[in-house]
Design goal:
The structure is a homodimer. By secondary structure, chain A is an alpha+beta fold. Chain A has helices at 3-11, 19-35, 41-47, 54-66, 83-93, 101-110, 118-133, 186-200, 210-219, 224-239, 251-256, 263-275, 277-284, 334-353; strands at residues 70-71, 80-81, 136-140, 149-156, 161-168, 173-179, 246-249, 291-295, 307-316, 319-329. Chain A is elongated and about 85 Å long. Chains A and B meet through helix 7, strand 4, strand 5, strand 6 and helix 11 of A and helix 7, strand 4, strand 5, strand 6 and helix 11 of B. The first copy, chain A, binds a DNA duplex through residues 1-2, 38, 40-42, 52-56, 58-59, 61-62, 72-78.
DNA sequence: TTTTAGCACTCCCACCTGCCGAGTGCTAAC
DNA sequence: GTTAGCACTCGGCAGGTGGGAGTGCTAAAA
């Protein structure tokens, strides 16, 4: 038994893994990410330029396994990183790669100014990320509730129907169909639009308070029926900030990874991405970490317990707007994916800024 | 050799397959669709209530194979329908199933009036179809170019930017960001919007002719710069009618079918659905058959040569608007899928009508 | 002439077997 | 603390086998 070693190792706090162990763990993660195969001691001794023999490396690997950073798929098959191993790698060992210039070029070209609709640019972003990272991509569009409003207009469709159109500071347009219980003239609608814009413009729906609503009710008293519908609608948008439209890209990439050759696993993931409200919330709700890495069971959804998800926030006019995410196996190339995501998020913000 | 038989059979024109052969072909298709297994003569003799012995059925099957309606995966494995077999089945043998009442109920509930945005209702439709048919679904949203316009407004975002908003007869809202090279006042923008609405309202962009454009140029001469941008934009929309936004649903369903357990096949399909301009066109371009069934290599895209795609048109206010499609293996339950698609298309039209 | 029973034949598939290579843990020597 | 040596374990693969399903053909029956 490796008691003399293991006892010591267990006392380590994770962040204090000894330099050599860190080196070895990092090499194992990167080798495994690159090849998909379990990593054996011989190969590792060759890769880690420390002049160590396989036997020594084996001892270190045994320690790392005992501390929970590695696991063996079966006896004598080499080691693979455990979820904890990936976590330690991501937190302490990973060195984010630099995004090569030609990739930046692709991003720039792809998010050109000639794209003129938010829908198109979000879809394009999803596809772009899919191509650049080789992982499946989910992108949350900006929500009406979280955005600063510039205008609110009610535009007639016919005498029974109209659309409520909200233009945000980023130039995104949100619209909702509303019924006109009593027909209103163009002038009346324009007047209502003006009042709505005057009182709601410059703030986000999520921040609209009682007093503003009261002001609206007073100013638009003659149009109580319509106002009721409109306010309820806007209120819903303000209260449910976590319901963005999700754009998918590179779905096929999911299947490219050996981990998802079992169709059942892949199906679970795809269902979750399509349906799960938790995931939608996770991507649509303003929240702290600019870059969030969830590994395996850290994910909010069970179906993703074999996946990692990296998401980064993007902004519109400096305000939080949504998250871009990629989903892949836990054996993910974190060091490359993170900077690519960040670069795309930046360019997307740029697109909104100079829309 | 079965010469005496085969010579005669070859002379049949497809539509004139003898009654018994039709019965057998139909049984084979339906049995194979249900089980996924090749169909053998013994089973078939039991299923087709003709009191025929397996040996007789074998002879008929040999004829059908020779005429190209069946094929054998390998010697002594039973028969499966060929692409031609499915085609004949779809054209002459299939009896569309009736949509059960509770399914209709699900459709009704799902496409309720409380859904207020076109984006949401299209996405919902895609998901719904995915659930109801167990096939992957692609849905083309209505395009700006093909829709009858009700209003065109230019709404300011800030003094350098604005959005062009087009409201269609179905209540769909399309928007594009535009730069204001010279700042314009709200009044000016409103005036421009009025002129645009007056001259373009009531017709589809695709139908706008030279004279109307000339009229615009005259009426809005002072705003040449802006008008140039706007007209180019509207012109593009009118000229490129086949570029709808595609909504996917039930992607996981693709993997549920044994035919796509090979991840490479599934990947090809997913890439095609995401990227192929041909497919986008196929679904976004007004075109004849209300129900279109493409089997195997009949598909416009190579990647779908192992798939069948059923698409149906839907309308908005009676005008052609887009297609709903499902994609699955050629071994598809055509008889059930077609009526479900039709029912959903009808309800979708209903949603737009009473939006 | 059409239908049927019988039969030999073909092919796939699931199972078993033994072998090989990769990689481990342990021990004893350095 | 490090290393070489060695016995051991396990998965994967090639090759062989038996069983089952289904066919085509032939000759007899209807």
């Amino acid at each position: 038994m490796a008691n003399s070693r293991s006892v010591r190792v267990v006392n380590f706090s994770p962040a204090e893994l000894d330099e050599r162990k860190r080196l070895i763990l990092r090499a194992i993660v990167e080798e495994h990410v690159a090849t998909g195969q379990p990593v054996g001691s011989r190969l590792l001794a060759r890769v880690v330029a420390l002049g160590l023999s396989p036997a020594t490396v084996r001892n270190e690997m045994a320690d790392l396994e005992e501390s929970g950073y590695l696991e063996s798929p079966h006896h004598s098959a080499g080691r693979i990183p455990s979820q904890l191993g990936y976590r330690f790698y991501v937190d302490h060992l990973m060195q984010p790669a630099q995004v090569p210039f030609d990739l930046l070029e692709v991003i720039r070209e792809s998010l050109e100014l000639k794209t003129r609709t938010v829908e198109a640019v979000m879809q394009q972003t999803a596809h772009l990320l899919g191509r650049l990272t080789n992982y499946m991509t989910v992108v949350a569009g900006p929500t009406a509730g979280a955005s600063v409003l510039r205008r609110i207009d009610i535009l007639p469709v016919d005498d029974r129907r109209a659309v409520l159109v909200a233009v945000t500071g980023g130039g995104a347009v949100h619209d909702w169909a509303i019924d006109l219980s009593t027909p209103l003239s163009d002038e009346e609608l324009r007047y209502i639009s003006e009042v709505l814009t005057r009182l709601l413009g410059g703030r986000a729906l999520a921040d609209v308070g009682r007093t503003v609503l009261q002001g609206l009710e007073d100013a638009l008293a003659p149009y109580r029926d319509l106002l009721h519908v409109v306010l309820e609608l806007l209120h819903d948008q303000g209260q449910a900030p976590g319901e963005p439209h999700l754009y998918q890209g590179g779905v096929a990439n999911l299947l490219a990874h050996q981990e998802f050759h079992d169709p059942r696993l892949a199906m679970d993931v795809l269902w979750a991405v399509e349906q799960s409200p938790e995931l939608r919330q996770e991507l649509g709700q303003a929240g702290e970490p600019l870059v969030r890495i969830r590994i395996g069971t850290e994910n909010v959804v069970d179906a993703l317990s074999h996946c990692s998800m990296i998401s980064v926030s993007y902004t519109v006019n400096g305000e939080w707007a949504g998250r871009l995410a990629i989903i892949g196996p836990t054996r993910m190339d974190y060091a490359h994916a993170v900077p690519v995501l960040q670069a795309v998020a930046e360019h997307l913000a740029g697109w909104f800024g100079r829309i």
